Predict the 3D structure of the following.
Amino acid sequence: MPPPTPAAAPHHRQLSAPALRDPAWLPRVAWTLAALALLWPMGVLTEFRPWVLLEPGALQPAIDFVGAFFPPRTDADFLRLLLRETWRTVAMATAGLALALLLAVPLALLSVRVLSLSGLAGRMAVGPAVLRQGVRWLLLVLRSVPELVWALVFVRVVGLGPTSGVLAIALTYSGMLGKVYADILESSDTHAAHSLMRNGTGRLQAFFYGLLPQSGAELTSYTVYRWECAIRSSAVLGFVGAGGLGQLTDSSMKMFNGAEVASILLVFVLLVWLADRLSAALRKDLA
């Protein structure tokens, strides 16, 4: 191939030279300024002033309290109490999630269009459509009320103790689980389920053999994640008298006992790590 002519050489170098300026810099700067303009009034409205933490009057008590975290309390009496409350917290979260599943699974199956026999022909019939929308609204109401509010209600009804925490987690998490389960099933490949129903199988068979095999890993992963969230929620519910690690944390915080708080936080980290490992193991088995 002959070498490029002198007239073509500068043109070749011009094409291969890298751009010295990002061509998308102007939209990025514009969106950044728009975000700052939107966030600024929100910060003013919420009185967000993080520099207050650096003031001497606020910084020294925080340093003293954090310094009291070390070393964590590890005497035998406290470890026995911590073990008992940890087991109570895990039991509260597990029982609440189990009750939530009893509500979430049937509600999710009722709310998905994939398992509607009338929807196979196109538009759903009026009755199934109204039922589906009603179930969707019920799931919306259940997940809209925070578990802390439900716990305050059940503390009045059943008294102090883990029962109120279990019921609160069950109601809120049934709405969350049912909504996400329905979304996962709706977004999966529906060909197998529709083929089964067109050939005379029932909705449950279509679910177990058409939808669950391809969505099982995602459903399991989200369920374990919600169990991890339920453990954290049960700890928060302890602040309103539901027992468990939350109530123990509340008493330790009120007594400014940082060593006990540090031990409790370490247990929380361990529980979250165990939940993460369990989720990874289940995803690997179901993959």
The chain is about 75% helix and 0% strand. The chain has one domain: 76-286. The radius of gyration is 28 Å. The mean pLDDT is 81.
